[in-house]
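Much of our argument rests on the idea that a fold can be written as discrete symbols. Part of our work consisted of pairing the sequence of a single chain with a tokenised description of its backbone. We regard such an encoding as a compact summary of how the chain folds. The amino acid sequence and the backbone structure tokens for this protein are reproduced below.
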Amino acid sequence: MQSYYIKLLLLLLFMTGALYASYIHTVSFITLLFFFTCILGLYFLIPIVQKKTLIYILILILIQTISLVTDRAVFFYLVVIMLFILMESSQMLSVKTFRILLLSTVIIHFVISVVLFHFSISLYVCAATMVIILFVRLNENSHEYASIRETYESLLNEYRIQKRQAFKNEHTARIEERNMIAREMHDSVGHKLTALLMQIELLSIQEKNESFALLRNMASESLEETRKAVRILQAEEIQGISSVIHLVKKLESENAVHVHLTTKQGVLGMRISNRQNAILYRVIQEGLTNAMKYSSSKKVFITLGVSPIGHITIEIKNTYVHKYPIYEGFGLKNMKKRLEEIGGKLDVYQADNQFILQGNMPVEEIEE
């Protein structure tokens, strides 16, 4: 849409030049002003109508009509405006339609230039030939570019589908592998430890020996550790800082955002409770959702670190160029509340066209 306004500004400059050249002749000036108003009215319709051919034909007819009622001083500006409209239509119309429109315009303009303004025929033919070759090539290149762009979009869409499917397949395979390992540990190691524990119990009944009690405790602890490992493997939910990485990977596989994740030394090794994990996950998830809704770019920068006092620090940055003040909606207020409940804090501010969330949360001791 920005390019449309630039082209509109250029068109207004050409028209202003034509009006300035004819301001001495009152009749010519009023006539030009009327026709230019009609042309601008039609030009405003170009972005909103589906069939643009008729609009361009009407604009070119108006330009040719103006040439019949004006003088030589304005004629130069009309040629520039006509070339401008032809150049723009070359990017919008099909090859066949544009060539018919171009040849018709050149022939009509040739008659007006030679008969009315007595231009040299040979000079006009040379100039018209160059213009035709240039615009025909421009029209062909525009359609070739559109075709390449369409192919690229199709391939990109297919890539997104394949990437999303690959992520799902990887996730499914990982879950199946973990479940298989969990079953093997439960059926093999767990059963053997249970059998071992029963044998120790029988031996301890038959023979009173303190060593059996030590062996029984060791076997019980090993069995409990095995069961705990099986439960962890069977848990589909990813815990700890790795859950954040999993969230980032999921969003990028859907091509929703491009996340630049930075983890500073020490943060990946921190052990946090399930409650802290849930809060950290939800805060970053809400920050990414907020960026996807209001950011001017798909790029989001996330930095996780450890403060000097051992708190986990969070920073989320994305481009934000709006001039009106930041409004803290339900999502941001909820993020603040979540962190404050565990003794943390969240700051929200805008600086250098960036929307920044900075927070921290203390690390609780994990109950074994």
